[in-house]
Write a structure and sequence with these properties.
Layout lengths: L1 E4 L5 E4 L14 H92 L3 H11 L7 E5 L1 H12 L6 E6 L8 E5 L2 E5 L1 H19 L1
Parallel strand pairs: 3-4
Antiparallel strand pairs: 1-2, 3-5, 5-6
Helix pairs in contact: 1-4
């Protein structure tokens, strides 16, 4: 029999032919250190990659948010611009309507003022007739057509020799006061006051439009 001493110091009798017991496996300390360091490096790398992923995700979220805000601002700006244009167009139409009313009123007032002047001083129509006759210098015989309200004054002027080349004065119903038409052997000259008032109204409209 052989006596085998174990590491613990105990003695055990070895039987003949029995296999010797295996020694307990041990790990070198340097291997433990290396494994620990490798695990630490892997952990640090994983942590860095995770932080990088989080940073990229946050950057993408910030970019998306900024883009959404920019698009929202652009949409808001476009909406405000459209509203401003619509308001400007509405104001322009309102200004144009107001301008038309002003010009129409001015024309009406001018026409009424002329009628009142002729009522207060009927001889003014004689001056209008003389002005019309000056435009028909080449005519020898002239028929003067006027408003029924102006006929008496014009006939008196004709009798007084103030209307040369006029052979007669004729009344025309519906013709406004101050409106004269000359019928001659070479043509007709209509000295209607309405077209002149229209021209004055057009000039007034242009003046007011440029001043606004």
């Amino acid at each position: 029999f052989a006596t085998v001493r174990h590491a613990e110091g105990a003695e055990r009798v070895a039987l003949p032919g029995a296999p010797e017991p295996m020694a307990r496996a041990t790990v070198a300390p340097e291997l433990l250190v290396e494994a620990s360091e490798r695990a630490s490096r892997m952990l640090e790398r994983a942590k860095a990659e995770a932080e990088a992923l989080i940073a990229r995700a946050q950057a993408e979220v910030a970019e998306l948010r900024a883009r959404a805000e920019a698009e929202g601002r652009a949409e808001g700006a476009a909406r405000l611009a459209a509203q401003a244009l619509a308001l400007r167009e509405h104001e322009a139409r309102a200004d144009e309507r107001a301008l038309d009313r002003i010009v129409d009123l001015a024309r009406l007032l001018a026409e009424r003022l002329l009628g009142e002047q002729l009522t207060l001083d009927p001889t003014r129509v004689t001056a209008l007739a003389k002005s019309a006759l000056a435009e028909a210098r080449g005519a020898r015989t002239i028929t003067l057509v006027a408003s029924p309200e102006d006929v008496t004054v014009l006939q008196n002027a004709l009798a007084a020799g103030e209307l040369p080349r006029v052979t007669r004065v004729v009344a025309q119903a519906g013709r406004p006061r101050g409106s004269i038409r000359l019928e001659t052997e070479i043509g007709v000259l209509d000295a209607d006051i309405a077209p002149e008032l229209d021209r004055l109204a057009a000039r007034l409209r242009e003046t007011l439009r440029h001043e606004s």
